[in-house]
Amino acid sequence: METDGFLYETLSPLSSAVTVASPPTTPPPETTAGDSEDYLVLRNHIPISTISTPLPETSAPDFFSLDPVNDDDGWRTPTPPLKRSRLATPLPDDEPKRSLEAGWFRANCRFKSPMLQLHKEILDFCDFLSPTAEEQVSRNAAVESVSDVIKYIWPNCNVEVFGSFKTGLFLPSSDVDMVILESRMKTPQMGLYALSKALSQRGVAKKIQVIAKARVPIIKFVEKRSGISFDVSFDMENGPKAAEYIQDAISKWPPLRPLCLILKVFLQQRELNEVYSGGIGSYALLAMLIAMLRNSMGTRASPEHNLGVLLVTFFDMYGRKLNTSDVGVACDGGTFFSKKSKGFLNPSRKSLISIQDPQDPENDIGKNSFNYFQIKSAFGMACSTLTDSKLVMSLGPNRSILGTIIRPDKVLLERKGGLNGDVTFTNLLPGAGEPLQNNFGEHEGLFCNWNVDDEEEPLPRGKDVVSDDGVGKESRKKSKKVVKKRAVKVKKAVTIKKRKRTSTDSQS
Q1: 431 burial class (0-12, 13-18, 19+ CB within 10 angstroms)?
Q2: Which of 28, 81, 312, 452 has a CA positioned 20 to 30 A from the CA of residue 5?
Q3: How far apart are CA 352 and CA 362, in angstroms?
């Protein structure tokens, strides 16, 4: 399907019989003596060498066709003039100018193709999350206010902002990360306590908390005027460097920003976005997205620009297919690598995801995401929801597709976003959070398509052997013991009552 200034890849329509294209017949590249053993990148996929090899392109029966057919119902694709979205980045003059054309989707109407509809909703939701002019002014003023206090204490220091505020990937509830460089303090702890005292005395901050014994000591507080949370650290130069890397990646990969914002909200609503609680942090999420985009772009004749297709591809890759037991993810160079060869394999927790730090190849930024099994389940569930044709088609013209995986919360419901600050979440994603029609049938709950490791085994083990009637023998023995103990307690209670009555009668 081709329109002025933009090209879409047409995917195969859904069918009841899911077929997957056979692997390529070309032999894999020859391994050298330095290569380690073969490993599986995807489940039920042929082994490949540790030499970087793109995944074979397969048909996509789970994705809805992007080319409308049988246009006999009320869903029509509008064709107003194309406009550049403010999410798109400038392209070199020698390349054809393609953008994420949010201008297609301002008519607030439904489409024959659900993937086009999902693409539209992602763009609109990202506009909704983007800061208004007033919010941007408020954040800049808060940063300047905190910087003034820091400069008052250490006039010659260098204050830098990094993280999501620097890269433009922050959510309305995101905090601001700052680092103080060249303060010449003997220890970070001394500097944090000095800053805490100054912030309190000058009435700039509230809810001040110094976390001095952490691996990276920080001070957390809320700037009074704006209500924005801050995290300030000392002499951590890797933060600003990572922010520069992310900014460069966003300029190279236009889909990166909208996809990252959607996934940050997705993880935040499920409390899977904090590394200290085993979730995936923003930096690791960016690396996973870049790896997915590299693999997706490398296996296609032309790059995929539809954000709906890319979002489902991400959920499918990390929620269903990626062999995290043996394979790690890298966003630079080769997309996948052997965890064992890199020294990233944790024998006691093999299923944890390993993500190579693009700034430090020897660092695994996924090693602390110990709750990845739950993250993977959430991704697999989202993939099953977005690729269920009966469910999506049953939504009708008055319900959002993106709203099936993004639910309303307090921050989103109270927010008024968009270019003019007059868009509400309810108007943007109607029906979000409402119960969905279950079309998974006998496979209900099986969303991950993954072999469960020993540490994740939910079934009875050891002596809990299941008998013919479906009751565990060990459980049956325990239940009998419990019944006997209760009977003994009842007998004792009856005996005590009788003794009391006897003693009372004798006294009278």
Answers
A1: middle
A2: 312
A3: 17
SS3 (DSSP) at 291:
helix
86/161 Cα distance (integer angstroms): 23
Helices 282-298 and 238-252: angle between axes, nearest 10 degrees? 30
The neighbouring-strand residues paired with 466 are 472
The pLDDT tens digits of the residues spanning 86-95 come to 434 444 444 4
Of 380, 382, 392, whose CA–CA distance to 446 is shortest?
A: 380
| Dihedral angle computed from the Cα positions of residues 37, 40, 41 and 43, in that order, rounded to the nearest 10 degrees | -170
What pTM, to 2 d.p., does this model score? 0.68
Q: What is the DSSP string of 24-88?
A: PSSPPPPP-TT----B-SBTT---B-SS--PPPP---TTSPPSS-----SS-----PPP---TTS
DSSP label of 169: -
Asked if 432 and 400 touch (Cβ cutoff 8 Å), the reply is yes
* Amino acid at the residue 497: K
The pairs formed by 33-39 with CB atoms below 8 angstroms and a separation of 24 or more are 36/338, 36/340, 36/341, 37/338, 39/323, 39/326, 39/327, 39/338
Tens-place pLDDT, residues 179-197: 999 988 889 999 999 999 9
CB-based contact 304:295 (threshold 8 Å):
no
